[in-house]
Amino acid sequence: MDSASLREFLENTHLNNAEAKRRRLTLYFISYIGGFIMAALAVQNLARGDHYLAFWLGFFSFSVFANAALSHIFKNSNIFYYIAGFVVAVMVAVITITGGYNNTGLHFVYPIILIQIIIVRFRAAIFYVTGTVVVVAFIVYNQESIPANYRGEDVSRFLIALGCFIVVAFISEYFWHKSRKEMMTDNLEKLRQANSDPLTKVPNRRFLESVYFERAMKNPADYFPLSVVVVDIDYFKKINDNYGHDVGDKVLIKLATLMKKAIRSTDVVSRTGGEEFLILYPKTSLSVAVKLAEKIRVEIEKSPYTEGDIHHSITASFGVATALTDININAAIKLADEHLYEAKGAGRNRVM
Questions:
Q1: According to the 3-state scheme, what is the secondary structure of the chain?
Q2: Band (335; pLDDT cuts 50, 70, 90)
Q3: N or C: which terminal CB in the chain sees fewer CB atoms within 10 Å?
Q4: Which one is catalytic: 275, 299, 301, 307?
C-alpha cells in the first residue's frame, strides 16, 4: 500500500463515512419533520373540505415516510436520496397545479425546492432543480386547465424571486462544498501522516489497530481469512554497527519498497517497529500466504544492499499465521510472532 493507496483507504474509511452519515441524517430529519407537517396540513385541508389537496398532501406524507423507512433498511443505497428529490419535484408540481389554500401554494415552493439542493448531490441537484423549475414555469403560464388561478404579475415576480433564491442557494452550497473539500484534504493529509511510517512511507502500527482491523471487523466478508506475515531483517544490528544508522535507514527503505512491489493491490505492508514489518493478505489461506512470503524472502535474498564500497547481503525471517474470523486477529499475530522466532532459531532466512 503506497501513499496514494493509504490516502484512498483513509478517505473511504473516515471521511466518506462521515459524509454518508451527514447525508443520511439530513434525509431522515427532513423526511420525518416534513412528513409530519404535510400530514397535519392534510388533516387541516380535509376538515376544510378540500379533499383533493388533502389527498395529495397525505400521499406525499406517506411517500417521504416510506422512503425514509426503506433507507433505514438499505443503508448503503443512494437511491433514496434521488427518490426524495423526485418526490419533491412531483410535490412542487402538484402544489403549483392546485394552488394550495387560496392560491398561496407558491409560497411553499421555496423551502420545498431547497430540499432538492440539500439532499441530492450537487451536480445531480442542478438537473433536478432545473427540471422542476421548467415544469413550474410551464404550469403557471398555462393555467387554463388547472384549479389554481395566478395573476400574471404574481407569476413573473414569483419566477424571478424563485430564480434568485435558487442561484443564492446553489452559490452557498457550492462554496460550502468547496470549503469542506479543502478541510477534508487537510484532514486527510494529517491522517495519512499519523498513520504512516515517516521513514519507509508504509502504514504504521497505529493504522493497523485504529483503521485497518476496525474496517476488517465491520466488513469481515471482504477480509477473512486474513493471513498475517511478520517479517524481521536478519542481523540488522550489525548493519547499523558496521555502516551507521544512515545505511540502516536506507536498508529499511529498500526492503519496504521491495515488499510493496511484491504484494498484490489488496495487500498491505506496514512497519511495526525497528526492523520488523507486518504483511497482511486479506482473503488468503495459510498455504497461499506461505507461498507469497517465500516469494518475498527469495526476492530479498537476491537483492543485496550496494552503495559505493558497501556490498551487504540482506536476508529476512518470516512467521506466518491466519485469522479465520475477526476475533482471531490478535491471536494470529501472536502466533506469527512465535513462528518468526522459530524461523530465527532454525537458522534465519526462512518462512515458518
A1: CCHHHHHHHHHHHHHHHHHHHHHHHHHHHHHHHHHHHHHHHHHHHHHHCCHHHHHHHHHHHHHHHHHHHHHHHCCCCCHHHHHHHHHHHHHHHHHHHHCCHHHCHHHHHHHHHHHHHHHCCHHHHHHHHHHHHHHHHHHHCCCCCCCCCCCHHHHHHHHHHHHHHHHHHHHHHHHHHHHHHHHHHHHHHHHHHHCECCCCCCEEHHHHHHHHHHHHHHCHHHCCCEEEEEEEECCHHHHHHHHCHHHHHHHHHHHHHHHHHHCCCCCEEEEEECCEEEEEECCCCHHHHHHHHHHHHHHHHCCCEEECCEEECCCEEEEEEEECCHHHHHHHHHHHHHHHHHHHHCCCCCEC
A2: very high
A3: C
A4: 275
Query: Which domains are delineated in the chain?
Result: 3-189 (no CATH), 205-345 (3.30.70.270)
The answer to whether residue 11 is catalytic is: no
The pLDDT tens digits of the residues spanning 135-174 come to 999 999 998 888 888 888 889 999 999 999 999 999 998 8
Q: pTM of the predicted model, to two decimals?
A: 0.67
